[in-house]
Amino acid sequence: MLPTPTPDALAHSQRVTAYLRSLIEDADGWIPFSHYMEAALYAPGLGYYAAGAMKFGAAGDFVTAPEMTPLFGRTLAHAIAPVLAETGGEVLELGAGSGRLAADVLGELERTNALPARYCILEVSADLRQRQQETIARELPQFAGRVQWLDALPEHFSGVILGNEVLDALPVELVHWTEAGPKVRGVALDGEIFVWQDHPIADAALRARAETLNLPPGYVSEINLAAEALIASLAQSLDRGLILMVDYGFSASEYYHPQRHMGTLRAHYRHHALDDPFYLPGLCDLTAHVDFSAVAQAGIAAGLELSGYTSQASFLLNSGLTELLMQTPPTDAAAYLPQANAVQRLVSPAEMGELFKVIGFGTGGIAPLAGFARGDRRHSL
Ligand SMILES: C[S@@+](CC[C@H](N)C(=O)[O-])C[C@H]1O[C@@H](n2cnc3c(N)ncnc32)[C@H](O)[C@@H]1O
């Protein structure tokens, strides 16, 4: 049974729905799903990420790794510290959510005397930018000047570009493979109700990708051109250093597996995963798994070196997660048990350890990362 939204939340969702309808009407009755997803998530003051929804944590709709334990961010700090030292560079975090990861990474870099001159955040949501500023001001007031929010990617950047669960939050194209070839799936109106409608693919890049995938009639799935474009822009910005992206997904052969014929698009509402992306617009997160083969190819095509691809479990364990956990004595059960429990969720194959992956791209000849030393799976992409 799904929790009932409050009257205020319902009124907000009705405003978002009216806005989405107006987009469809203004576009002569049809928009591609990527436009629906973009607006439902990011329309200023309306979209899920751009208005006041709680989103993360127990009272929100989903829980991300940084919200589960500070050990996630602390481990990532150890993973990236050698690159910061080697490049003398900075950190740039994309899509920083509540600011939790930034606070944990910075705290650990300070403890280990590895602080960069700046920790930059690029965040598309004004609401989340404010939340991140509050988190940093509350927990790390000494870093007020060191953390900076950017409005666009810098033209030149050295150091580490980091993103946790950013690629899965980018608007995806939906494609329906039919007897007559692939069609782009979009949203139309039947009276006031959103309905699916398939159109010929006008975008040449999307059509070429859909034709190359050549999936059987009836197959519906996503193609995330925005993720590929983001990696290409990061490649342009990064002079020397590392791009590290953590997200859930798989290689193309698993992504477009015959059994996954309904794709991976889901709505998340109060810790329930739903198949219906039209449910309560503005109150639900919309996400799709990441096709890491496409991400890898986009990076390589943009001139980056693929420095590693592995499971979240391998990356965190290689980077010293267990050693950090052991800094809390197991005899101090009240402190140790919640951390051990969160670590178990991060690395267990039945939870996040296997579904979540870490992909790294390097440029400028930086040394290999310890995080990819064991369990590297680049060959599977
Ligand atoms: C699923 S949330 C993850 C938040 C946080 N990284 C975490 O792990 O808790 C996705 C985040 O990416 C942001 N985002 C989406 N598109 C982005 C883009 N093109 N550039 C930067 N941030 C983006 C969202 O506003 C949000 O902060």
How does this structure look, described?
The protein is an alpha/beta fold. The protein is 38% helix and 24% strand. Strands 2, 3, 4, 5, 10, 14, 15 and 16 form an eight-stranded mixed sheet that branches. Strands 1, 6, 7, 8 and 9 form a five-stranded antiparallel sheet that branches. The chain is globular, with a radius of gyration of 21 Å. The two termini are 39 Å apart. The model has no long low-confidence stretch (mean pLDDT 95). S-adenosylmethionine binds next to helix 3.
Question: How would you concisely characterize the structure shown here?
Answer:
The chain is of the alpha/beta class and 381 residues long.
- N-to-C series of helices and strands: HEHHHEHEHEEEEEHEHEHEEEEHEHHHHE
Percent helix range: 25-40%
Shape type: globular
- The computed structural class is alpha/beta
Number of H/I helices: 14
Total strands: the figure is: 16
Bound molecules: S-adenosylmethionine
Average pLDDT: 95
Most strands sheet:
8 strands, mixed
Indicate the low-confidence ranges by residue numbers: none
Radius of gyration: 21 Å
Beta-strand proportion: 15-25%
Roughly how many Å apart are the termini? 39 Å
Topology:
Layout: H1 7-26, E1 31-32, H2 33-42, H3 65-68, H4 70-87, E2 90-94, H5 100-111, E3 119-122, H6 126-139, E4 147-150, E5 157-164, E6 173-178, E7 181-190, E8 193-200, H7 204-213, E9 220-223, H8 225-237, E10 238-250, H9 252-255, E11 266-269, E12 272-274, E13 285-287, E14 290-291, H10 292-301, E15 305-311, H11 312-318, H12 321-325, H13 333-347, H14 352-355, E16 356-363
Parallel strand pairs: 2-3, 2-5, 3-4, 5-10, 10-14
Antiparallel strand pairs: 1-7, 6-7, 6-9, 7-8, 10-16, 11-12, 11-13, 15-16
